[in-house]
From TrEMBL:
One of its GO terms (molecular function) is protein-N-terminal asparagine amidohydrolase activity. GO terms for biological process: ubiquitin-dependent protein catabolic process. It comes from Arctia plantaginis. InterPro entries: NTAN1. GO terms for cellular component: nucleus. The lineage of its organism: Eukaryota, Metazoa, Ecdysozoa, Arthropoda, Hexapoda. This is Protein N-terminal asparagine amidohydrolase.
Amino acid sequence: MTGPTITRKPPQLYFVFKRKHYLKVNRKIVSMVVVLNGVLADECPTSVRALLNAHPGYRDAAAQLLASAARVVPSPGLLYVVQRELAAVVPHDKNVTIIGSDDATSCIIVVVRHAGSGAVALAHLDGSGTAEAAATMVTRVQQLAVGYPEGRLELQLVGGFTDPHRYSDELFANIMLSFHRLSVEIDLTLACCCELNTALGTGAAAPMVTGVGVDIRAGDLFPATFPDKGPELPLRGARTITSGPHSGQVLDIYDNTVGMLRIGPFNYEPLRGVDLWLEQSDEFILQHLSTTPAVEPPHFVHNIRVTLKFIQQHPFPAVTVFPDNRAHYYRRDEQTGCWVAMRF
């Protein structure tokens, strides 16, 4: 369905959905503390091509993941992480069995796991807040691993493809450099990204895997899709298409001390011209609010419209959504296995 003809173009969004920001990096080879193929690396490959040239075995690891059939993960026991969010869990958590994320076209899903304890953190990164997210993931996993047997830290990267603007390539470089700058050794065990995750075929390039789940008890990572992505998606997605002090942050959404999903509190600035954006056709929204319009999932435009409508109704979330500056908490319902709101 096409929208009405307009005489003026909607104002530019401050954060275009899935747009890559702060990604320009120095592509020279630098020293690092990432372990590659079990050996502490002296040099940091900031592209998948450079990684494969030095360590071709990563191609086989990616191929194993790509050969696995995607699982459709139901709601019970799922902790879903949206874009610009992260979460960390332990295997004995009674509320979570799988942590995961999907819809990562030009984004990259990052997993950090402690082999000794099984503690795992997962983030869905788009280029905003990458360095801070990398540091937080490692810190959270280390905190959760206290008191457990020693074990290596493992890093797995999935998502992104050889997109026309090379957003995923820049993001991969930024992620690698962010972990390099940390003062811990971390073993890169999987890099199914960029060219290793690109299907060429007869048409345009497209990502082969856009979502993964991690079985937190077994520690296995697998391709996945998630029909139910958890509560308050319009609110959570609003940060990616607005400006404000919290819009560029990667927020931790899980409180391990109480076993609850935690949303906010955060604020964003009113979106100028949101009414005009909502008048546009689906094709217009797809072309202007995605960095990869040719490969977005079918629900992309619908989700954007719902998010824009939420922003229209709540231009000042600090007043209407978080009036007492308290997070929204959700506990796991014992009967349904789904998240239900509670006052905490």
